[in-house]
């Protein structure tokens, strides 16, 4: 009889917590998005060290690790991103990626070539997820689900699961997860499921918000011999 009461109590508690969990998650999400709105209003720029870990399981398991510095800024509601890659798999392979106004530019210093594309939708998704995005920005482009708290690099973050509303972006990234510090409006970690066994994990350290950026933050560093390729 005692066992029966314990079982009934356990079932009742399980039902109770199951019934309040969605409500709590909704409240947590609302709180996080509100903090992002507040942080975004005061956002101007960000500097951070990054590590991009790309992996695939099919058809042949492989990994690729890139390290460098990334810059973000926002002026007149226009976001810019400058990625300065210093090394690839431990070897110096200098590259610069600049995304601004819907244009993507990749400068590969070793071959002195710039590849340009006006179709920067894939990379502009990084801008929204990167730094300075408001809660409204996220909700406009993604279905957002609160996934709890998690400590990343000694910092308490809020984990958000994102599913893109744009079908084209959804094809590129079936699912995205970000670990965000809502008080500063910055991501400490991002995970991109690219489908077909491929994924990318981005981690950010030494994050500085609203600090002056170097003059070459969004400069490619080309010269008179640089070749330009349009895609």
UniProtKB/TrEMBL annotation:
Q: Which domain of life is it from?
A: Bacteria
State the signal peptide span.
1-26
Against Pfam families, the record matches this protein to: LolA
Q: Which InterPro entries match?
A: LolA/LolB/LppX (IPR029046), OM_lipoprot_carrier_LolA-like (IPR004564)
Tell me the lineage of the source organism: Bacteria, Pseudomonadati, Acidobacteriota, Terriglobia, Terriglobales
Task: Please tell me whether the keyword Lipoprotein is annotated for this protein.
Answer: yes
User: Is Repeat one of the keywords UniProt gives this record?
Assistant: no
The protein's UniProt keywords, in alphabetical order, are:
Lipoprotein, Signal
The molecule here is called Outer-membrane lipoprotein carrier protein LolA
Q: Which organism is it from?
A: Telmatobacter sp. DSM 110680
